[in-house]
Specification:
Largest interface: A-B, 61 and 61 residues
Number of helices of chain A: 2
Strand order of the largest sheet of chain A: 2-3-1-4-5
Distance between the termini of chain A: 42 Å
Oligomer: homodimer
Helix content of chain A: 10-25%
Largest sheet of chain A: 5 strands, antiparallel
Order of helices and strands of chain A: EHEEHEEEEEEEE
Radius of gyration of chain A: 18 Å
Structural class of chain A: mainly beta
C-alpha cells in the first residue's frame, strides 16, 4: 500500500505567505489569529529551499492580511513574501517591510517602564535599531530587545477550543 | 502570473496523522511537541473530506509517535488514523484509541483535589465516562470534565523561539 499524496490544490482566492523563516509558520498563525480560521489552509514547515536552505510557507483560502498582521510577520520573518491570489492568479506580490517604529505589537517587559503603568497606560512603541538580526529599543525606557527576547501583545482569542496550561 | 502549486512530496519515512477533527491539527502539533521538530512537515487544515465534511491532516518526515502522543491525539481527535511510512509505503495503519483511564496527561483544575497538593503531589488520573463527546472524571475528587474544559499538562518546551504573552 503506497502512501497517498496530500493533494494541495491551488487556492482560488486568498493569500500565500512564502519564504517564512524555517520553523516560524506556526508561531505566525498563532500570532495573526489565522489558527482559528474556518477556511482551508495548507502549511509547509522546514520545506527545502534553494535560497534559504529551509523555509516555511502558508496558503490560506479566503483570508487577507491587514497592516498589523503584515507587521507581525515582518518581525518574525523579514524575508517573507506575500502573494494575493484571485481567480487562481497572483494579483499582487509584495515583500514584508519592518516599520521604523513598531507600535502596540510588542510588550516592554521592564516593569518600571511607563507602558506598564497601572494608572496611565501608554501604548508601547519601539524603535527598530537593526533589521537582521532584529534589535529594537523601547522609546520610553530605552531597554533594548533582540528577536528571541520579544514578547508579543495578542488579542484574547475569542473562542479557544482547548485551553492549555504549561505545567513546569 | 499563475499561483504555483505547493509541492507536497510523499514522505520517505515518518508518520501521517489523518482524519484529525477539523481545526485541531495545530493544537495537536503544540501538545505533542512536533511544532519544534526541525524536520519537514506538511499540514492541511479544514481540508474537504467526504466522510467528515472537513478534516485536518499532518505529515511529518522522520518522526514517530510515542504512546503519550497517541493518547493526546485520541483525546482531541478520536477518529484520527495514524500511518507509519517507510520507504514511501504504509507499513502500519492504526486508529487512535482513547484509554479507559487517562494518566498524567490532563490537569484537574479543582484546587482542593489531592493531585494539586503542594506537599504530596499525586499524578492525575481520569476515568473516561464517554468517548464521543468526551466526558472524563477525576478518580480522586470525582470532578467531571468535557473536552472543552480540559487543561493539558505539557512538558516545558526546551527551546521556545518566541515567547508570547497574551495581553487581556
Amino acid at each position: 500500500m503506497s502512501e497517498d499524496k496530500l493533494k494541495i490544490e491551488r487556492i482560488h482566492k486568498g493569500t500565500v505567505i512564502d519564504h517564512i523563516d524555517a520553523g516560524y509558520a506556526l508561531t505566525i498563525l498563532n500570532l495573526t489569529g489565522f489558527d482559528e480560521s474556518p477556511n482551508l489552509m495548507t502549511i509547509g514547515v522546514n520545506v527545502p529551499s534553494k535560497k534559504y536552505g529551509k523555509k516555511d510557507i502558508i496558503k490560506i483560502e479566503g483570508e487577507f492580511l491587514n497592516e498589523m498582521q503584515m507587521q507581525q510577520i515582518s518581525i518574525l520573518s523579514p524575508n517573507a513574501t506575500i502573494s494575493l491570489i484571485d481567480d487562481y492568479a497572483v494579483i499582487e506580490k509584495k515583500k514584508v517591510k519592518i516599520p521604523h517604529i513598531i507600535k502596540k505589537l510588542i510588550l516592554c517587559t521592564n516593569k518600571t517602564c511607563i507602558t506598564n503603568s497601572q494608572k496611565e497606560p501608554i501604548e508601547t512603541e519601539f524603535l527598530v535599531l537593526e533589521e537582521k538580526p532584529l534589535k529594537i529599543q523601547c522609546t520610553y525606557c530605552d531597554r533594548i530587545y533582540k528577536l528571541e527576547e520579544i514578547m508579543f501583545t495578542s488579542k484574547q482569542k475569542t473562542e479557544k477550543k482547548i485551553k492549555q496550561k504549561i505545567q513546569l
